[in-house]
Amino acid sequence: MFNSWQQHQNSRIMKKMILSIAIILVTAGLSVPSAMAREMRGGAMSHRPGVEMRGPGHGPRVERPMPRPAIGGHHAAPHYGMRFDRRPAGVVINFGGMSFIYNNGIFYSALNSGFEVVRPRVGMIVPSLPMGHTVIMRNGSRHFAHNGILYSPMRRNGIVVYRIAGFI
Fold this sequence. Notes:
The protein is an alpha+beta fold. About 20% of the residues lie in helices and about 35% in strands. A hairpin with a 2-residue loop joins strand 6 and strand 7.
C-alpha cells in the first residue's frame, strides 16, 4: 500500500516538473517538445515561426516562412494593409468566427486573393509575446506592449498566454 502511494506522489511530482518546464519554455517564447504538449493540452502545440497550431489530435504542419519585402536594401516590417500572395508562416487563431494568422506580433487575415496585415481584435489570445516587446505597469498589473498593441498575461490550462487588451 505504501508503494502505491509513493508511486502516486512521484507521478504527481513528475507532472508538476513537466508543467513547470513547459511554462518556462512558453514564457521564454520557445517551443514545447510535442510529447510535453500532448501531455498538457491533449494536442500538438508550437510557438516557433513557421509552425501552425492545428488543435488537439492534429500534429503541427510546417510551413515555409514567407520572405519579407526588401525596401532600400533593408527588410521592412509588414504594416496594416500590406498584402501578400503567399500564406504567411504563423499560428492560426480563431476569433469571432474568423481565422487569423499570428506571427511575432503581426496579424494576417485571409482575402480572396491572398493575405492582408490587419489590426488584431481586443480579446484575441496569442501563445507568445513578440520579440522586442516592452513591459508596462498599468493599474498595478504587468502588461506588455509591442507595435502599439497592449498584451495582458493570463493562464489557460496552466499555461501562460497573452490576451490583446487594447492599443496604445
